[in-house]
């Protein structure tokens, strides 16, 4: 008895002292997470059985048989009580050490990670690549380790990437980070916002596309070419810019948080103050820059002002004229 | 001895701890009903993939905000400290009332006022839609009535502090002769621990929401990062109280489970001393866990690791309690009365919530399941379902003592089986969604998971029906129930040694206590 407890204590101390970073190198966090979760699952099922099976057994075996029967006068057992203090402590300590190691693999970013900055806003994600290009609600990364620097332009959001078992909040006024190992080119993963950010919270989603290195480089080059050229048609720009609006305004006519963009231009619209207008360029521009000035009747005044250049606003207006 | 006054006025001006307890119970049950109703609305909404037509993204947020606030702040905490605390403490320690009866009445009226403010938050324009946690900047920059949220928390906090000071003073100073600390009921110990948490934690919560009020209406920038403030400051202050608040609910519940299991096993509670130590360890350790709500909020790595140890170590004292309950059943003489069934149902739900809580506490696992349906499932098992079930069981247990009537056992058992069958399945699918990383508080559930949510919804209706049947049972039996004898469960605890309903001023003569409350089956002539 004494020998075995000494043995346990020794293992525990060794486990706690081992430099966690020695294990962190070269580990894909996804594998580490899966292993850790499986370990917990085994422990959880065993604990559940250890509680449930004896309970059901006692309930059957010790049913009251006669009205005035008493139980046996037992007030406790120090040995047993120490046992079920010590054993759970050891199990929890071992799980904790494993968790600490997994956590370290999550926080130690490999030196060669490709870094993208992501800004959250209500309700979308803007990706800002080191090459100077930007995308909205679509993150393309090359195979290999990727680091994301996260921030927010308004309220707190969260960049959740379940496929890679990772998430981190996006806070206004500071950067947080996460990293993952992008394997399997061609695979598309879901990105969710996982921190309540308003009525459009469940629409704030994005896609992550993993690409082969050469494909990714080609994509970056083509993107750069398009952005740099003066001949970029307003249509293409508008189509890209509108993605930051479609979290709340549908293109299909469906009612979500805000009025739909489908058939917006020229639409007869009742405003909250009772006046009726036909939607025109001036109204759209005003609604982008100061959304609360004239609210459409029946919709909440929740849209934040968007700081876009005149050119960008023009592109959006041009694109909106097209959607019918 | 004073005469007991009568009439409706006496309910309004009463300072009798039993009447105030009943006022707490009625109000808390109304909020429980409101919470269940809002749960039904959400669950019905989730029957439809891609969101139903009768809610929208905005209204859905309002519904879960008020559901959370009603259930945690206006049902669970008040029913356990306000009702059970008030009813049981004087009866169990052999006192005629609490230490400050008028302060006690004030606590109740503050609680009712806070409740009315919360309901206004649901009804007035600018409805509260930022979750019961009220995180800035969302709660500051939107057009919601944040002031209602803040004032409800202030008033409720004042009520809770007054109530807790009262209960602690009563326990410390008004125990009957011979009622040593080692002879106190475990329910008294649990309520003591919970009250200590309340008076340490609530001032911090009050500070947090006060700064929110200043930020929103007076133009300060405590939580505004662009002006040098910090949004995370609020989360730290909020969870400093709001996580221990879980133990404010849990500790009295642990005590009540011990009372019921010992009584219906007709055996002394196993390991009384280790039970008391576990309660006190949780009271202290409960303040060492709050950062687990900020595991993925950009918190410093060392802080996440430190608070992981606090969080998972809570599993140890909790485990001690569960094993002690099992050992109490061992070689007992078990009677399956309605309260006992609820206590056993509590243990089975609580165990599921407990082991999944370890997963939440483990930093390495939580990084995937944080703010997902996993968390929703976990806290509904460990807190909402299990502890509501036990609160209902406790009401069944002491019903004869505060009404003088017996509850319908038949209806009670039907209600129990509906509740437990519904509860066991209602949230299980959400563990799967959580592992897949689906975020909580989504009005639109991703289509591939809609089927799982539908199963959960159907079973949640069964559980809700069970809870409603119990509420109906209480209402019916309070009027039509059989007259109760003074000690229907044949308990050894002090409150059952006086008539039912407990008379005004409780004890004709303050009793002299010679042994503890769990001395079942004690061999003749043996010293305790």
Describe this structure in words.
The complex is a heterodimer of chains A (324) and B (528). Chain A is an alpha+beta fold and 324 residues long. Chain A folds into 3 domains: 2-59 and 77-107, no CATH class; 114-228, Cupredoxins -  blue copper proteins (Immunoglobulin-like), CATH 2.60.40; 234-322, Cytochrome c-like domain (Cytochrome Bc1 Complex, Chain D, domain 2, Orthogonal Bundle). Chain A is 40% helix and 20% strand. Chain A has 8 helices and 12 strands. Chain A has helices spanning 2-17, 21-24, 29-61, 78-107, 213-228, 234-241, 281-289, 310-322; strands at 114-121, 124-128, 134-136, 138-142, 144-152, 157-161, 166-170, 176-182, 188-193, 205-211, 268-270, 276-278. In chain A, the strands form 3 sheets. Chain A has a 5-stranded mixed beta sheet with strand order 3-2-1-5-8, with no helix packed on it. A 5-stranded mixed beta sheet of chain A has the order 4-10-9-6-7. In chain A, strand 6 (157-161) and strand 7 (166-170) form a beta hairpin. In chain A, helix 1 (2-17) packs parallel to helix 4 (78-107), helix 3 (29-61) packs antiparallel against helix 4 (78-107) and helix 6 (234-241) packs across helix 8 (310-322). The longest helix of chain A has 33 residues, at 29-61. The radius of gyration of chain A is 29 Å and the shape is elongated. Chain A starts with a helix and ends with a helix. Chain B has 528 residues and is mainly alpha-helical. Chain B has one domain: Cytochrome c oxidase-like, subunit I domain (Cytochrome C Oxidase, Chain A, Up-down Bundle). Helix content of chain B is 67%, strand content 0%. Chain B contains 18 helices and no strands. Chain B has helices at residues 8-13, 17-45, 57-93, 101-123, 138-141, 146-173, 186-218, 231-242, 244-265, 272-285, 301-313, 315-329, 338-361, 363-369, 373-403, 409-426, 428-435, 450-480. In chain B, helix 3 runs parallel beside helix 6, helix 3 (57-93) packs antiparallel against helix 7 and helix 9 crosses helix 15. The longest helix of chain B is centred in the first third of the chain and has 37 residues, at 57-93. The model of chain B has no long low-confidence stretch (mean pLDDT 94). Chains A and B meet through helix 3, helix 4, strand 6, strand 7 and strand 9 of A and helix 3, helix 10, helix 11, helix 12 and helix 13 of B.
């Amino acid at each position: 008895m004494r020998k075995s407890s000494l043995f346990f204590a020794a293992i525990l101390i060794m486990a706690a002292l081992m430099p966690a970073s020695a294990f962190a190198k070269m580990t894909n966090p996804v594998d580490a997470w899966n292993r850790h979760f499986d370990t917990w699952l085994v422990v959880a099922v065993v604990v559940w059985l250890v509680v449930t099976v004896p309970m059901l057994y006692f309930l059957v075996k010790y049913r009251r048989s006669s009205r005035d029967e008493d139980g046996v006068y037992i007030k406790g057992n120090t040995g047993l009580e120490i046992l079920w203090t010590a054993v759970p402590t050891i199990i929890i300590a071992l799980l904790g050490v494993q968790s600490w190691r997994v956590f370290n693999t999550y926080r130690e970013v490999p030196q060669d990670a490709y870094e993208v900055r992501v800004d959250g806003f209500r309700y979308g994600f803007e990706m800002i690549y080191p090459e100077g290009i930007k995308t909205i609600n679509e993150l393309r990364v090359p195979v290999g380790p990727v680091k994301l620097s996260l921030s927010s332009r308004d309220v707190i959001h969260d960049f959740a990437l379940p496929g890679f078992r990772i998430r981190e909040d996006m806070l206004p006024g500071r950067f947080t980070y996460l990293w993952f190992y992008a394997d399997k080119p061609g695979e598309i993963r879901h990105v969710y916002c996982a921190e309540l950010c308003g009525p459009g919270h469940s629409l704030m989603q994005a896609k992550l596309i993993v690409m082969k290195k050469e494909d990714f480089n080609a994509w970056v080059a083509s993107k750069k070419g398009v952005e740099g050229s003066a001949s970029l048609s307003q249509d293409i720009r508008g189509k890209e810019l509108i993605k930051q609006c479609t979290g709340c305004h549908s293109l299909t006519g469906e009612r979500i948080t805000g009025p739909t963009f489908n058939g917006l231009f020229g639409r007869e619209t009742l405003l909250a103050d009772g006046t009726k207008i036909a939607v025109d360029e001036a109204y759209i521009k005003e609604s982008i820059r100061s959304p609360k000035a004239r609210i459409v009747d029946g919709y909440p005044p929740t849209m934040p002002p968007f700081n876009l250049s005149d050119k960008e606003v023009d592109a959006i207006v041009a694109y909106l004229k097209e959607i019918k | 001895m004073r005469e007991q006054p009568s009439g409706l006025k006496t309910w309004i001006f009463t300072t009798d701890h039993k009447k105030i307890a009943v006022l707490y119970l009625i109000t808390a049950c109304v909020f429980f009903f409101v919470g269940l109703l809002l749960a039904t609305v959400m669950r019905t909404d989730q029957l439809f993939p891609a969101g139903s037509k009768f809610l929208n993204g905005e209204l859905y947020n309002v519904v879960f905000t008020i559901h959370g606030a009603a259930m945690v702040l206006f049902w669970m905490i008040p029913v356990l400290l306000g009702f059970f605390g008030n009813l049981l403490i004087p009866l169990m320690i052999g006192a005629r009332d609490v230490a400050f009866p008028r302060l006690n009445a004030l606590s109740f009226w503050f609680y009712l006022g806070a409740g009315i403010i919360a309901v206004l938050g649901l009804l007035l324009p600018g409805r509260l839609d930022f979750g019961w946690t009220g995180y800035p900047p969302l709660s500051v920059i939107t057009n919601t009535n944040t002031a209602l949220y803040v004032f409800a928390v202030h008033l409720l906090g004042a009520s809770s502090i007054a109530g807790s000071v009262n209960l602690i003073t009563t326990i410390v100073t008004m125990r009957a002769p011979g009622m040593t600390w080692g002879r106190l009921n475990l329910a008294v110990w649990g309520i003591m621990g919970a009250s200590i948490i309340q008076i340490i934690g609530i001032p911090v919560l009050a500070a947090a929401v006060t700064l929110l009020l200043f930020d929103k209406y007076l133009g300060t920038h405590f939580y505004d990062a662009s002006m040098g403030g910090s949004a995370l400051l609020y989360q730290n202050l909020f969870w400093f109280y709001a996580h221990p608040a879980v133990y404010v609910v849990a500790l009295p519940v642990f005590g009540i489970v011990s009372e019921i299991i010992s009584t219906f096993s007709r055996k002394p509670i196993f390991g009384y001393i280790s039970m008391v130590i576990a309660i006190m360890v949780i009271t202290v350790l409960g303040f060492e866990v709050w950062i687990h709500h900020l595991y993925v909020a950009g918190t410093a790595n060392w802080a996440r690791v430190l608070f992981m140890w606090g969080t998972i170590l809570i599993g140890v004292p909790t485990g001690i309690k569960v094993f002690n309950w099992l050992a109490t059943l061992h070689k007992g003489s078990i009677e399956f009365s309605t309260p006992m069934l609820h206590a056993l149902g509590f243990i089975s739900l609580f165990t599921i919530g407990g082991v999944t809580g370890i997963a939440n506490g483990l930093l390495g696992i939580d990084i995937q399941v944080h703010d997902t349906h996993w968390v929703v499932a976990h806290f509904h098992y460990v807190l909402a379902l299990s502890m509501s079930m036990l609160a209902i069981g406790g009401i069944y247990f002491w019903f004869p003592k505060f009404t003088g009537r017996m509850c319908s056992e038949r209806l009670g058992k039907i209600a129990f089986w509906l509740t437990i069958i519904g509860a066991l399945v209602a949230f299980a699918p959400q563990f799967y969604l959580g592992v897949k990383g689906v975020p909580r508080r989504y009005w639109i559930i991703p289509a591939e998971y809609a089927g799982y949510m539908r199963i959960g919804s159907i079973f949640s209706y069964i559980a809700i029906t069970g809870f409603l049947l119990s509420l109906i049972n209480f209402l019916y039996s309070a009027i039509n129930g059989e007259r109760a004898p003074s000690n229907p469960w044949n308990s050894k605890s002090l409150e059952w040694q006086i008539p039912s309903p407990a008379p005004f001023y409780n004890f004709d003569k303050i009793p002299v206590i010679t042994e503890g409350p769990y001395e079942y089956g004690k061999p003749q002539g043996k010293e305790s």
